[in-house]
């Protein structure tokens, strides 16, 4: 990232080569519109090129992949907001993918059998809200846009997910 911050094109090319397949897969799990995913990818890497100097992970212990995903997730929410304001295709006609992400499976395995079982036992709609808010770090509003749900529904599902997890782990 330091080399990218110094406008090193070779370093940026290497970053893109290493991270773009993974990032594209994560974005496609949340959005089935390949055009929107391509737009978000482009916006994300442009933002990384412009703001690489602000990445504090080397000193702060953060990961470049986490920083990259945060940028991409926010760009995806922004793209969904734009689409909601100027719809070309009604949102209910867009296919939604709900296959479990590899990072979800890895997280469930790495944080212990009890928590993994509790996560696996959540209803898919509760797990989706928990994933967006906890793992992706999105706000209620961003989660609402990402999942196409009213904010009140997101809050209710988040509260229900916490309750179910608490009961399963006690």
UniProtKB/TrEMBL annotation:
Residues 114-163 form the RNA polymerase sigma factor 70 region 4 type domain. SUPFAM superfamilies: Sigma2 domain of RNA polymerase sigma factors, Sigma3 and sigma4 domains of RNA polymerase sigma factors. InterPro entries: RNA_pol_sigma-70-like, RNA_pol_sigma-70_dom, RNA_pol_sigma70_r2, RNA_pol_sigma70_r4_t2, RNA_pol_sigma_r2, RNA_pol_sigma_r3/r4-like, WH-like_DNA-bd_sf. Pfam families: Sigma70_r2 (PF04542), Sigma70_r4_2 (PF08281). Keywords: Sigma factor, Transcription, Transcription regulation. Residues 84-103 are annotated as: Disordered. Residues 15-85 form the RNA polymerase sigma-70 region domain. Belongs to the sigma-70 factor family. ECF subfamily. This is Sigma-70 family RNA polymerase sigma factor. The lineage of its organism: Bacteria, Bacillati, Actinomycetota, Actinomycetes, Micromonosporales.
């Amino acid at each position: 990232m330091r080399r990218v911050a110094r406008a090193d094109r070779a370093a940026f090319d290497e970053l893109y080569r290493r991270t773009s397949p993974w990032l594209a897969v994560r974005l496609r799990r949340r959005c089935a519109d390949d055009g929107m995913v391509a737009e978000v990818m482009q916006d994300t890497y442009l933002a990384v090129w412009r703001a690489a100097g602000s990445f504090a992970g080397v000193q702060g212990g953060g990961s470049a992949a986490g920083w990259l995903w945060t940028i991409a997730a926010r760009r995806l929410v922004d793209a969904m907001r734009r689409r909601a304001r100027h719809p070309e295709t009604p949102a209910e006609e867009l296919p939604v993918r709900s296959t479990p992400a590899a990072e979800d499976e890895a997280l469930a395995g790495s944080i212990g059998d009890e928590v993994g079982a509790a996560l696996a036992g959540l209803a898919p709609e509760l797990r989706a809200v928990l994933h967006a808010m906890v793992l992706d770090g999105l706000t209620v509003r961003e989660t609402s846009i990402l999942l196409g749900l009213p904010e009140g529904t997101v809050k209710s599902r988040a509260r229900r997910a916490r309750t179910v997890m608490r009961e399963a782990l006690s």
